[in-house]
Amino acid sequence: MPGVKEKKLMRVFYLGKKYEEPLPLSYAEAVIEDKGIQGARLAEKDANKAGSFLGNTFELEEGVVPEDGDVVAKAKEALAAGQRFFLTDLEPDDLLAVADLPEAEDAIFMNIRSSATKLRQEECRQNVFHIAPDYAQRADAIAQYMIWKKWPRWFLIRRDTVEDQDYAEQVKRAAGRFGGKVVEDHLYNLPPGARNLDSGHQQIQKQMAEETQRAPEHDVVWVVNSDDDFGDYLAYRTYSPRPVVGTQGLQALAWDPSYTEYGAMRFQNALPKLANRNPVERDYLAWIAFRSLSDTLKNTGSVDPEEVKAYMLSDDFKLAAYKGQAMNFRDWDHQLRQPIILGGGPRVPVSTSPQEGFLHPKYVTDTLGFDKPESKCKFK
Amino acid sequence: MKRTNLAITCATTLFLGAAGVAHAETIFVSNEKDNTITVLDGDTMEVIKTIETARRPRGIILGPDFKELFVAAGDGDIIDVIDTNTLEITRQLESGPDPELMDVDPDGKIIYIANEDDSMVTIMDVASGDVLAEVPVGVEPEGMAVSPDNKYTAATSESTSMAHIIENASQQLVANVLVDSRPREAKWTKDGKELWVSSEVGGTVAVIDPETWEITKKITFEVPGVRPEQLQPVGMDFVKDGTLMMVPLGPSNRVAVIDTAKKEVVDYILVGQRPWHGEPSADGKSYYVANGLTNDMTIIDLDSLKATKSVPVGRLPWGVAVMPGKPGA
């Protein structure tokens, strides 16, 4: 058959840890235990389909340790077994511990979980690629839309976790970049509310009004609550009638449950066939991560980590992933350039950023997140 | 999206002989969001009828004798067959899941259907609706094109980024050609010596030599002031006796005009928003293109290469088919 090169096997390792996931605010919402891995499984299936025409095969191995498990030991084991391509479903400390292993120097780690900006900035690594949008991209995506709407005054309300501090910093940075203003940075200190509405709703109804009552004049409430334990209570309960954006309300997402543009229905339909549930953001990120690797083998015929890395950072790398434009990686911090969906709450997405009018000489998607001049990443 | 320019020319001539009316023709537009086909009178551009179809009609083609119109209804998992004389759905073909585009062989006997969700090409007998074969192809097959000599059928797979070549006699794959990201449509030149494939996300059109199944030329697009990622070739139609190729470029709101001999873009024509697919008029003088976001169809004059008029159609128009003559004539 013409076009067939030497047959290759690409092995991909899904490295994760069963961190405690925040409980959904509603009992009716199922707790999903297999976020991410299902997207990787679908990508393996897709890749083998394409590979069958070229003689390539793909093998996904799953290594998810329990919450108190040793992910570094698991990584060492996989590296010793010759694994070089990893999808990492890990929090920053675990990801760095793994990526800094001496034997991992020539491996590639695709971060499908963490939005921590330090992983793209001071703590960037030459062997780590970021599929997940970071908090800077997410904050900028919402900020651009707020500016487009002429809603520049933001009342920031948040908890004080490491994640929330990071996201809040990026909201302030976005305000500076795009001409918005954080009128107050307000810490929400009350303990998580009752999950039972019949006993808790009156309390919540009063609490949210009180928390937002003394805020300076603002156009929107920007909530930053990564633990997801109060943010959803804000909408329709604020003292003044204001839209809610951030980690709840209107959210900046790589994937939205109602997204259907640019062939996305295929992903919406294909994942439930495999997983018996609808796709979530991490499934989509895992799918992209796997696909970045499989596309590279398809186009280069190589499974050599150095060559794979070089191709993924080249101009030839053009990933199609249901966003209506080719995606690729920033060479200064290995962050995936991507349009960000503004959705999460309504039955259809509200918009996609970058917004019209936010311009960039090379990639408009570089108006979201850390552009080259702002990058603090120095690969060791 | 009709069989060959030759067939059109013959049919037009016959019709002119019979009725003596210049460019009498009927235009069909599939409306993805409305679940309808808009039927327009080509002389007046008035809507003659709106035909309700199964859910999410996209691909739309006429058989070589123009008696039947085939409509691929993706979410209905069915192909509606419309009698072009009565403008009624007369039967349905069990296409398999999620049909998107299709093509009919030159005899009008066999239809080749891309099952987008199923990674299959279904080969079906048009008259009986019997499935003759299912050929596994890459993920998300879309574009389908039977070669003029009926020897091969090309199927493009959007996620796998390949043009798969089926040998029609054996119903087996004989070649898989890697093209740029997200290939959407395939078209053969009239002489069958070139296979053209548009890659939406890759932003290129590849020209493939069916002797070797190698890409001999890649055509790229460039418009000053328009971001390169918006130049996304989707549909493709040969016009002007195959000397020009019209390529609707999706989010850039333009149709590119390619000189097929030089394989270079000679013009970009501004149309409505997000043009998907088009079709030349029966007399070959105009080109109709469906604009997905503005719910209209732009008419381009092929002599001047200017957009002359826009006609409102249904919601999210996707495909266009043109029949010489009028229904009931």
Automatic annotation (TrEMBL), chain B:
Gene3D superfamilies: YVTN repeat-like/Quinoprotein amine dehydrogenase. Keywords: Signal. Residues 1-24 form the signal peptide. It comes from the Bacteria. Residues 19-113 form the YNCE-like beta-propeller domain. It holds the Pfam family YNCE. Coiled coil: none annotated. The keyword Signal applies. PANTHER family: DIHYDRO-HEME D1 DEHYDROGENASE (PTHR47197:SF3), PROTEIN NIRF (PTHR47197). This is YNCE-like beta-propeller domain-containing protein. It comes from Methyloceanibacter methanicus.
